[in-house]
Every structure is written in C-alpha cells, then in structure tokens.
C-alpha cells in the first residue's frame, strides 16, 4: 500500500479520535485487516483500495 494511503488512514483515525477497532467498523473491515493496512503488511485489492481512498477523503473533510 502506498505510504500516502497509510498516512491518510492513520490521520483519519487520529482526527476522528477512534480506536483501530472503531475505525475498522466505520470502514466495514475487520480489525485485523485495518491493523495490517496501518502496518503496511497487507494491501487491499484495487477495488477496495479505490473505495477506501474515497471513504478516507470523506472522513478527513468532516
């Protein structure tokens, strides 16, 4: 996963003041999936990546 998306994912979670578990629920993914994305250990599929990027953009604009 790109470093920019990892940064955006962590930034959104921190700005919302939610835990990784809560952020995973907001994104509709498992806790383990979110942790692996934040640690850049796993990359979402192209379709999921596009949806994730759009969702993060909307969360960061609030």
Brief write-up:
The chain is mainly alpha-helical and 62 residues long. The chain is 74% helix and 0% strand. The chain contains 4 helices and no strands.
Structure description:
Helix content is 74%, strand content 0%. With 62 residues, the chain is an all-alpha fold. The chain has a single domain (3-61), classed as lambda repressor-like DNA-binding domains (434 Repressor (Amino-terminal Domain)), CATH 1.10.260.40.
Helices, by number, come to 4
How many structural domains?
Answer: 1
Low-confidence stretches at least 5 residues in length (pLDDT < 50)? none
Shape: globular
- Identify the CATH homologous superfamily: lambda repressor-like DNA-binding domains
Helix content, binned percent: over 70%
**Overall CATH class:** Mainly Alpha
What's the alpha carbon Rg, rounded to whole Å? 10 Å
CATH architecture: Orthogonal Bundle
Within the CATH hierarchy, at the fold level, what is the topology? 434 Repressor (Amino-terminal Domain)
Which structural class best describes the helix and strand composition?
mainly alpha
- Average per-residue pLDDT, rounded, comes to 88
Order of helices and strands: HHHH
Beta-strand residue fraction: under 5%
Largest sheet: none
Alpha carbon gap, first and last residue: 24 Å
Number of strands: 0
Keywords:
single chain; 62 residues; mainly alpha; 434 Repressor (Amino-terminal Domain)
Q: How is this fold's topology laid out?
A:
Layout: H1 3-16, H2 20-27, H3 31-38, H4 46-61
